[in-house]
Structures are given as structure tokens and as C-alpha cells.
## 1
Amino acid sequence: MPLQYDFEESLGYWLATAHQAYMRTFQQALAPHGITFRQAQVLGWLVAEGPQSQRDLAERMLIEPPNLVGVLDRMQQAGLVERRVCPHDRRKKLIHLAPGARRQWEKIAQCGREVRSRAVEGLEAHERETLKALLGRVRENLTPTSTVPSP
């Protein structure tokens, strides 16, 4: 008996396939600039959240910390990031944006705007706002909340 699943009714299926199409298009937009998706991710998280440990950055990127080492090594050699000792824990290094990151970030941001524009093509302004609100609620529903023990 063949395995069956109601993919057309699966929110996960629709989110995953939309995400894959979005990311594939974004990667294709970055490629002519010599920028990889992982580099864009690193710079994006550093722009959004500021300096971070390798562990925190890897967690945000949904990869294992050792898998990030090579990306960071190449980015450091290219003058995009710097590793600096954490002022609160000298055993830990924080990843910072390097001065050379600005030019690359501008290219990444432009690619992001172009892909975002393409993704919402044909949607009215109120539909885009509804989509953002609904996706925000889905994210909130799936984000773990800290539970405070009852007294």
C-alpha cells in the first residue's frame, strides 16, 4: 500500500515549499555578486542582532557551530567579519561586522528587496499586510515561551 499524506492541507508543506522557492531565488540573485547564502545569513544576523558568539549565530542559522567555522574563516579573510574576545568571558569570541562588510551588505539588501518584490507580485497592499500578520501569528504559536513555575 502506498504511503499517503494530505500535503495540500499541510501548513508545513506550504511553508516549506514557499520557503524553498524564496531561498532558491535569493541564492540565484546573490550568485552574480559572488555572495553565498550563508555569507548573507551571517551578515544579516549581525546587522539585525549585533555581535554574537559563533554558537548563537549557528543556532540562528539552524546549523551546527562546526559547520559555520569555514564560512567565518572565509569571511574573515575577505574582510567581512572579525572575531574578537568577549569582554565578559575571555574564553569566548564574538563575531563582529568588519568595515569591509558594508559594501557586501548593500548588495545583499538590494537582492533581498528585489526578491521580496518579486515574491509579493500581484498581491494588493492589504493582502501583503494580512500575509505578514498571519505568518507572524504562526511564528508566535510555534515560538516556545518561558514558563514561570507557579508559587
## 2
Amino acid sequence: MAYLQHFYNPSDDDFPLLLARNQQNTGTVAEQVQTILKTVKEQGDAALIRYASQFEGASLSSLQVSQEEMEQARSLVPSDLKGALQQAYAHIKAFHTAQLPQAEHLEIADGIQLSRNIVPYQRVGLYIPGGTAPLFSTVLMLAVPAAVAGCPQIVLCTPPDKEGKVHPAILYAASLCNVGTIYKVGGAQAIGAMAYGTKSIGRVDKIFGPGNRYVTEAKVQVSSSCCAIDMPAGPSEVMVVVSDEADPAFVASDLLSQAEHGKDSQAMLVIKGNRRSAEIQLAKVEVELARQLEMLCRQDYLLSSLSSSRAFIIDEQKACQRLVNAYGPEHLIINLGSDEADAEFAQGIVNAGSIFLGPYSCETAGDYASGTNHTLPTNGWARSYSGVSTDSFLKKITVQKVTRKGLAYLGPTLLTMAEHEQLRAHRNAVSLRLGGDR
């Protein structure tokens, strides 16, 4: 059976239809999220405890993870996973430390000094999905840059299991990053709690973290009223661009590793080459998809994802690049047979969350431990958003100092512009200082 619908040299006019994401019932989701947010805003902790029972089946007496639970988690995490998390932590910290910006200082003219102060957000909220798989790797991806940036208060929310517990690996990863304030709250209600504040959970300045469509919708809604967010990060996606000589097993594994994230994930394949050889390559990939699927769990997620995934055969490189830029993938894997070919193709890409070059740069490396961040823009938002970085946790405040000499130099320009904008008070603020009419 063929798992991927395939298309040959689609026109640019066909891109909107062929590159549509796997999302449904957005209107219903928006209404449900609006109700949840309103309830959390009005009822606070009581609503959070009730939603934990409704959505996770957990009966909670307290929302915050206790110190005892944090200590127990350390003994429950296998030693090999501890070692893996420690190595991932080191790589992520090194890369994000290198991202720390330098403040600018400039004397634009005699008596006019300009600079920027770089300051961290004072209180940030991190959302860590639980659901079908505990994403302890996301703890590192968010908490490490927050700590590197110097955020003094870091709050983490994640859904509990039916026993009212948080996965020990999530707690261990948080302890590596010195995050001690953790709440057993998931879904849209967690976003509402961090945005509005409750008795237990103080409101934050900015919310970070991926999630399902409910979490994403909640982030979008609170961002329009009271709280900044990192980006609208929803269902995950990958686009794999290969030559007709790429290893089909590698290609299939990249598509499947993305497809298993969730039923609404998407895995797109682009084969660059002539139609005959590309169709042979596509057939080999389909065989590998079938073979590898037999060995994998999460079949309902994989098959649902693949049902809305597609393959494109495109002759010419610029047309391939236009397709990629039109899609704006969260993850972009480029494997065209040589370092030079991969780098040349990447130079033409302006819309992507993160790029992986060559046959061995699998998405898994970036998802876990290479050091780049895996919290990335989805659903085409790569056209206007970057992935999470150290910079995401920092604000820049401009500073200027103008002496009397500096104001005298700039004065004619200021007076002229204020006069022509008909803003008399602006003009007076300058003329008074320069000895004009009072």
C-alpha cells in the first residue's frame, strides 16, 4: 500500500492546497479553550483541581510538586537516562550560553550617548506536555536558556498522570536546571493559570512551550490580552528533501520519527530529480515505511499522521526551494548527496524552524541532545518566528543621555519635525531647554 500521496512538479498556485496542515475543528477548539480560560480566571485553583480530575483522572490535594516528590524522582530515573540527560544538558547549555548578546554603546554625536540594557524576563512560565509521552527533553530546551538568560523566577507546569504524579524524568530534568517550582497542571488550563495567576500559581511575564491544539489556542488567546508567548507552537512537522540516491531507510525513519508525535503531526517528502529515478526512490521509501511500521508502536498516531502527509517529485532546485519556503517547515532535513549540495540548497531557504544537513543529521539529534533548541515554530509560522533561544528570555531597553550641547546640535531637527507634525508640546520640550519662549 502507498502511505504518501504523491505529486509531480506542482505549480506554485497549487501550494496552498497541497501544503495544508493536518488540523481540524479549529472553531470548536477555540470555543472550548475560551471557556476553560474564563473558568480558570474566575475560579482559580478550584478550576485547576477540577480539570485535573476531568482530563487526567487525577485527584489532587495540592497543585505543587513537593520537595519529597522531587527527591523520590532522583531514585526512580534509570542511571543511563540520568547520564543521557546530563550530556544533553551540557550541550544545550553550551550552545545557548554562546547566544548571549552584547549590549550596544554608541555616541551618535557629541553629547548624545545611546545604549541598550539587556535584562531577563523576571518570571517565566514553562509548559511541558505530558499526554502520551512525557517530554522531559522539553524541560531542558526551555529551562536551560531561561537559566542562561538569568530569569530569577522559573515556573513549570505539566499534567499529572492518573495517580496525580509527574513523570520522574521530568522532575529530574527540572532539578538539573534548578527549577524547583513545578505544578501538576496541564492543557489550556495551565496556560490560563500562568497567564492570569491563581492563589497557588502567580502570573508570569511570558509563557513558553509546545503543546497540542488546545494548548496552542490557549497561548494565542492569552497573548492577545495579558501575557506574551514564545510562539504559536502546535502539532509537530517535518519536511525531508532528498536526492534519488538517498538511503530510503534513512528517509523513511525521518518521516516516521516525526509522524509518531501525534495524530495531527505531518511528515512531508520532497524528492529532487527526474521523474523516473525519483519514482523509483519513492517506491523504495514506501517499502521502508511498511517495513519499519511493523516494528513500531503508536500505530494509530503514525497512520493518522501519514494519511495527511505527502510526497513531491520536483525536477529543478529552485522549484524545490520555493516549495519548502511556501511550507515553512518546523524541521527541515536536507540530504542531497554531498555537503556542498546540502549547503547550497540551505542557502535558498528563508522559512524553516531548524535545518538538518546530511544523511546523519536526523531530527532526533536536535530533538534531544545536539544542543539546538527543539521548541520551534509550526504551521507555517517559521515565516515570521524563530525557534526558542536564549534571546527569547531577554528584553532590550534602550537608554539615551543627551547633554545641553547634544540637544543644541539636535534641536533644529527636533523643532522642525515637531512643527510639521503639529505637536506643539513636543516642540516646547525642546525650545524651553534651549532658552526659547516660556
